[in-house]
Amino acid sequence: MTSGSTRGGSVEGSEGGEGAARGEGGAGRGGAGGEAVGWSVVEAEVPEFAGRVRERFTAYRHHVLASLRKDGAPRLTGLEADFRHGELWLGMMVGSRKALDLRRDPRFSLHANPGPGADLSRGDVRVSGRAVEVTDPAVVARYAAAVGPPEPFHLFRAELTEAVRTYSADAYVVLESWAPGRPLRTIRRTSDDPALRVE
User: Fold this and answer.
1) What are 75's strand-pairing partners?
2) Helix (H, G, I), strand (E, B), or coil: what is residue 48?
3) Contact 22, 160 (CB under 8 A)
4) What does the alpha-carbon distance between residue 146 and residue 38 come to, in Å, rounded to a whole number?
5) For residue 112, which of 180, 146, 158 has the smallest C-alpha distance?
6) Mean of the pLDDT values across residues 159-180?
7) At residue 61, does pLDDT exceed 60?
8) How far apart are CA 53 and CA 95, in angstroms?
9) Closest CA to 159 of 25, 57, 59, 65
10) Which residues 6+ apart lie within 8 Å of 132 measured at CB?
11) Percent of the chain at pLDDT exceeding 90
12) Looking at residue 118, what is its pLDDT?
């Protein structure tokens, strides 16, 4: 485990494990646009952090998805997200704009519903990566049997390039961030900190 600190803020890191298990559905590493991994890899490499991220997403049903329109502009839409079988699944109506966006350009960000009020003690969470459409009839049928979504539907598996959690603790705003192949980083800031550069 490694840790470091700077005046006006601190940065902490811990090494992730190698050879993490993949969830059923074929999520793995690599691909265009940077390394991306299935949810089971996040759980294997940074289990405590993954638990905090998952808890935030499962606290509420509806979240906000950012996809890319044909002209490259962002599109924000509501979405239900589901953790199941070691994966983070994104289901949506057939022909929806967000589904068409992801078919054209799989990059996305998903912001967890922060809930009521302005208290960040439980954390403000987002994940980013690429959404891989799942067309295997057996996988789709298993998901439908477990979740019972309106049919027909598009099903995407999230392969993550980043997960971020922000929360407040005493006088600090704390930022935890993780990306494949990189240790978990924790940054603590106050409103009067000088600019902090993280290498």
Assistant:
1) 67
2) helix
3) no
4) 20
5) 158
6) 91
7) yes
8) 29
9) 25
10) 27, 106, 156, 157, 158, 159
11) 62
12) 64
- Those residues whose C-beta lies under 8 Å from the C-beta of residue 122, and which sit 6 or more positions away, are 56, 59, 115, 167
Is the Cβ–Cβ distance between 153 and 92 less than 8 Å?
Answer: yes
Enter the pTM of the model: 0.78
Place of tokens 């049928």: 141
Q: What is the DSSP letter of 156?
A: E
Residue 124 and residue 76 in contact, taking contact as beta carbons nearer than 8 Å? no
Q: What is the pLDDT of residues 33-60, one digit of tens each?
A: 469 999 999 999 999 999 999 999 999 9
Look up residue 37 and give its DSSP letter: B
Phi-psi region of 151 (alpha: psi -120 to 50; beta: other; left: phi over 0): beta
DSSP string for 93-145: ETT-HHHHHHHH--EEEEE----SSS--TT-EEEEEEEEEEP--HHHHHHHHH
**Percent residues over pLDDT 70 in the chain:** 77
Tell me the average pLDDT of the chain.
81
The residue among 79, 162, 91 whose CA lies nearest residue 127 is 162
Specify the pLDDT at position 83: 96
β-strands 9-14, 62-68: how paired?
unpaired
